[in-house]
Amino acid sequence: MMDLRRIRSVALDIAGAENSSKKQEEVSDFIASLLNRNYQIYLYTTNKNRDISGEDFHHPRLVFLAEEMPPSPALLQSYPHLLAQETLWITNDGPLLDWIKEGGLSLISLGRKQGIALEGHSIVRLSELAALLDPTRFVLDHVVERVGGLRAARPHGALLVGVGGPALSGYQRFAIELRYRLQDAGHELVELMDLSRLLRSTDDVLEDDKRRPGAWVHRGVGRWMKEEVIAPLKQGGQVYLPEPPALLPADFSAHFPLFVSEQTVLLMFAEMLFTPMIAQASDLRVLLEVSAQETTRRLYEIPAGERFDPKLSEQYLAREGKVYQDYLGKIAAVARASIRVDANQDNTFYFSEAEAPASV
Q1: Burial 63-75 (b: 16+ CB within 10 A, else e)
Q2: How far apart are CA 202 and CA 271, in angstroms?
Q3: Most buried in the list 98, 168, 174, 292, measured by CB within 10 Å?
């Protein structure tokens, strides 16, 4: 069975799309969906009566291949990714199908009544394929599988899953989407615990003139978390706290009454989440990673793809970036992470290079 997690590019035959406004809309929606998820798109037509050389839609990840198919050696030399296993060919054209199969390339032929069995689905429309070609889904499903393995090995006792990453990495959204995925997978009790009000952030460290040591907003909060939440759960028990203690920040009170049963999957998240205590207590540690350049772009709200002064990244690395890198190094976060997630693209999460499925 084809592994869609490996796919990075799509070569799509648009023959026949010109015959129907509904078909044109379906193709347009498919292309827009994949471009938003950072896929490379190659468009071509096996209709010899249609010329697409004049198409004027421009996008850095979209290429119109005006040449006849199957592709010539010259075209393949210009676009070598067309021969990669990471490129998915989509066509119903007989001669091209033969060429793709002879080359052992990734292929889907759509539109037949029986469809194509793929990833447990029968695919007959582009919209169905678009729903499956979702890097975020692949990553979340991988985490869900890992949680399922932990639950199978330990049927009783709460499971603690930590999600952390730079301030603008989207770790909050990742944790929320993971909760829905876990519930869909049959984990009935999944709770979110936002620890960003209890743990110091990079901004807190920079603004703290007294340079107070420690990861928590104050030492008593860390002690409360360890004694009242972590310890009972790691001993296989449950936690029920009807009211928040006075030492906790007021904006953490939304978590109360706090109840975590022996069957709960508890998703804890924050920027600098993985204190020694949390890292040791977590059954699974998910670390989101974003480059300094991308974080700088988000920090200054610079449009994607637009160049900016490298000095901005240098300033980030000298301040917030330094605090965050010091945190990662101090706790060996990368080495201790169970799963590393590439969060460098807006709205989409990917496997990091360390987690990516191997090509075959």
Answers
A1: bbbeeebbbeeeb
A2: 8
A3: 174
- For 241, counting Cβ atoms within 10 Å of its Cβ (0-12 exposed, 13-18 middle, 19+ buried), the class is middle
Task: Give CB contacts under 8 A, 24+ apart, made by 204-207.
Answer: 205/323, 206/319, 206/320, 206/323
Give the SS3 label for residue 351: strand
Residue 97 and residue 110 in contact, taking contact as beta carbons nearer than 8 Å:
no
Task: With both helix axes pointing from N to C terminus, report the angle between 292-299 and 310-318 in degrees, rounded to the nearest 10.
Answer: 100
Q: What's at 39, amino acid-wise?
A: Y
Distance from C-alpha of 91 to C-alpha of 96, rounded to nearest angstrom: 8
Each residue of 176-235: pLDDT tens digit?
999 999 999 999 999 999 999 999 999 988 887 545 667 999 889 999 999 999 999 999
Please provide residue 38's backbone torsions phi and psi, each rounded to the nearest 5 degrees: 75, 20
Identify any residues that bridge with 163 across adjacent strands, giving them in sequence order: 269, 286
Cα gap 14→172, rounded to integer Å: 38
- Contact of 88 with 9, CB cutoff 8 Å: yes
> Considering only CA atoms, which of 214, 186, 197, 199 is closest in space to residue 256?
197
pLDDT digits (tens, 9 = 90+) for 62-119: 999 999 999 999 999 999 999 999 999 999 899 999 999 999 999 988 765 544 555 5
Q: State pTM to two decimals.
A: 0.86
